[in-house]
């Protein structure tokens, strides 16, 4: 098995939130503000209108620094996709689907780990990295739900 295949990861998370797709898209498309609601994303630095740098840390005691560049932003189709470089290289995408008065979200990520320490420890680290990712995604769902509730409460009633 090659080093690249050992360091390749595929993740999929499926969420449901009680908010309209437009509100969900607004939050997810604003990468610079992810640290406000997704606590495992410790910082975000805007580089330009299409690019930012995220510093992520979940349970394991290390940071991943990832440059995120929007490659698709299509609100009508409910699709966000970004290329990733840095400690992780690949892509991440959100599919945003209105359903049952709320929104289904499908998060897909395919990456190769570039961080040297993790590449060296891949044989023992792989299950821990998967668990770390799962914890990060749980934190993201919790934070997204809270952020959507805060935004909904702060909007004037349109009824």
TrEMBL record:
Gene3D superfamilies: 3.30.530.20
Name this protein carries in UniProt: Polyketide cyclase
Domain of life, source organism: Bacteria
Pfam families linked: Polyketide_cyc2
